[in-house]
From TrEMBL, chains A, B:
Record-linked InterPro entries: Cation/H_exchanger_TM, Na+/solute_symporter_sf
Keywords: Antiport, Ion transport, Membrane, Sodium, Sodium transport, Transmembrane, Transmembrane helix, Transport
Keyword GTP-binding tagged: no
Subcellular localization(s) per the UniProt record: Membrane
Gene Ontology terms, MF aspect: antiporter activity
One GO location term (cellular component): membrane
Location of the Cation/H+ exchanger transmembrane domain: 21-386
Membrane topology of the entry: Multi-pass membrane protein
Main subcellular location of this protein, as a coarse class: membrane
GO BP term, pick one: sodium ion transport
Organism annotation: Paludisphaera borealis
Protein name: High-affinity Na(+)/H(+) antiporter NhaS3
Residue intervals passing through the bilayer: 6-23, 35-53, 59-77, 89-109, 121-140, 152-172, 184-207, 219-238, 244-260, 272-290, 302-321, 333-352, 364-386
């Protein structure tokens, strides 16, 4: 982690926010969601181009993590738990197939390209986890978070994120050279899913009492700070119990969605999100290393070959997952496309592979390319599918998380 | 600087926010401003008592600095520059006397207690700078920021902050063992005051153009983020040109106060402030080291003697400064009391003295005691003076920065 003076941090935040707003606005003007602009803004100000923002600076990293917590809290506040449970089986099918298929395809493709078993497993693993942050933001950019397709994608992305933890445990154990016990896998799986279940049940019982307690505090902004505190607390608890930070933040939002002051909370969290959420997407963009894709370099040519293969496997695998719940009568294409973006999760796997020596520079570049393309492909594709379906429909609720980006 | 995992940071933020809200609410219930509760909350969770929050953790420090920027931006938005200029001479008199008198009294008292010249100068210096953050927050807690007394105090506190930079240069040079050139002092003084003047003049000319540019960005939250970006940018520029971060943030607020969307900006910044501002006050409280005041320790007994002397000099000096503008017909007591709190600025001087070996543990403890007492004395005294003057008057404007704390 790198360090900064306070004034240097301020300068970096200015660069990130100004770039996010300008490129976000340009993206909207050409009919794309603003989040796409924020990711591109990140690439522009990051190490690949201008070198003004280093996402590995401790405080920038922390602020962007606060951004993803606030985003998932806001998404949770927009989520109707009952509706999500009704499509729970559908989400589960999409998530499981969407993990198994891309993994299998990616592994097979890498073996066909002559790579060894461990490298191929690691490459397959990078294809598994949908980035719930990017997916949710795209849906909310388009005002479609509450559509049945939106609920399925969101549910699948959450399950997917938990499965990603399990895979991280298994693959992490394998590249670490140790054996992976069935017990460890079972424990990770149980802890990850168990956390969400326990939190929702216990939270449902305890929350009314907590809300009454907080309502005795007569300081302005208390509902918003209460919600943020709950999200941060559950995120901490989620990580401590072997689940993922963002699952805790999402659970907090789901629990708070039914409380009396949910609307006030949503407004306050949205305002906080205007500052924090773009920092997350700009930081994701800034952590992309385009130099891994220099076409004059032999590693990079290999990266283009591997990357191309991984992109095909990743896109086909997730699209097919959208068709997995054969009983579902909605738009299967939308579900499949919604699962495509990999984002920061894929980059974490790639970095782990590089650090452990499983990936060389070419493989790292290939995975980076796959992450960029899948992340950048989904927003315009989704937009195309959703607006062609019912021409530029205005969603019902102009306030709240959708407000993090107006519709173009 | 110390480091944290993301989840540890979240846990620390939960502790800080919950403590701030609970103790802030309790403070209000016994008729004190919430900021007093937040400072006490900081002492409770900091190293002196529970040890849960370490204000030297890099990200906590950065977040609390963002808090003071947002606070000063909000204060600036509430400031009527013309009104402040009208009482400019009065503010200047209060600021200058409020620096010279406490310094002279503190120096004399320490010499009488048998201390050497350099230590006495350093001790005098710790008495000079009013904490503009604490003063402004107390006034806004009480809804009196726009009274003529409020404007004088605020103006004096800003000038005072600039004078503090000059003193820091001089004393820093002396304890560093070097000689202090008249040129260096003149440069610091010129740069510090010059920045404010140049920013206000240039900003007045350039801002309408910038606002028009920003208004072409059609993303929600843009006015708030524009304001925050301007404050962070000017804070950075202020530090780079030898002035203080908070002067830049304050100047941004003053400039934006007259723009068409000032009201919307004020609402957004207030919401951001609900999260960031308490972090600043809790961090100030958490950095107080009560162990320097253990009565069983001989250093600490000496600390109580020195601290007692410094408290008398500090309080008398600033109170007298309130009476310095003999032509002023308002409440001179309010102005004097408003200048009393020293806060984080005094602690920075004390730490510098300790690091340079000019202060021993006893002196450090004495200065800490002075900072605690002056900081904690001002809010209840001000509240007493202002409410006895016209019994519990409700201020005109319930929204905006005053909203950072409701009136008790």
């Amino acid at each position: 982690m790198h360090h900064l003076e306070v004034s240097e941090l301020f300068a970096m935040l200015v660069v990130m926010l100004v770039a996010a707003k300008i490129v976000g606005e340009l993206a909207q003007r050409i009919g794309q969601p603003a989040v796409l602009g924020e990711l591109i803004a990140g690439i522009l100000v990051g190490r690949s181009v201008l070198g003004l923002v280093d996402p590995h600076v401790e405080t920038i990293h922390m602020l962007s993590e606060l951004g993803v917590v606030i985003l998932l809290l806001a998404i949770g506040l927009e989520t109707d738990l009952r509706a999500m449970m009704r499509v729970g089986g559908t989400s589960l099918a999409v998530a499981v197939i969407g993990v198994v298929l891309p993994f299998g395809l990616g592994y097979a493709a890498c073996r066909l390209l002559g790579l060894d078993g461990l490298t191929s497993i690691m490459a397959g693993a990078t294809l598994t986890a949908t980035s719930v942050g990017i997916t949710a933001r795209v849906l909310s950019d388009l005002g479609r978070l509450r559509d049945v397709e939106g609920q399925i994608i969101l549910g699948a992305a959450v399950i997917d994120d938990i499965l990603g933890l399990v895979i991280l445990t298994v693959v992490g154990g394998m590249v670490g050279g140790g054996s992976v016990s069935v017990g460890a896998v079972a424990w990770t799986t149980g802890a990850a899913f168990g956390f969400l279940a326990v939190t929702l049940v216990v939270g449902h019982l305890v929350l009314p009492w907590l809300v009454r307690l907080a309502s005795r505090i007569n300081l302005p902004g208390t509902p918003t700070i209460f919600a943020l505190t709950l999200a941060l607390g559950l995120a901490w608890l989620a990580e401590k119990s072997g689940s993922a930070l963002i699952i805790g933040a999402f659970a907090a939002g789901v629990l708070l969605a039914k409380t009396p002051r949910a609307h006030e909370i949503e407004k306050g969290i949205t305002t906080l999100g205007h500052f924090f959420v773009p920092l997350f997407f700009v930081a994701v963009g800034a952590s992309v290393d385009l130099s891994a894709l220099n076409p004059l370099d032999s590693d990079s040519r290999w990266a283009l070959v591997v990357g191309g293969a991984l992109i095909v496997c990743g896109v086909v695998g997730k699209l097919a997952a959208g068709y997995a719940p054969f009983w579902f009568r909605g738009d299967k294409r939308v579900v499949g496309v919604g699962m495509i973006p990999r984002g920061e999760v894929g980059l974490i796997f790639a970095q782990m592979g590089l650090d452990q020596g499983v990936f060389d520079a070419g493989m790292f570049g290939g995975v980076t390319l796959m992450v960029i393309v899948t992340t950048f492909l989904a927003p315009p594709l989704l937009k195309l599918l959703l607006t062609s379906k019912n021409g530029g429909r205005i969603h019902e609720e102009p306030e709240g998380i959708e407000d993090l980006v107006t519709e173009a």
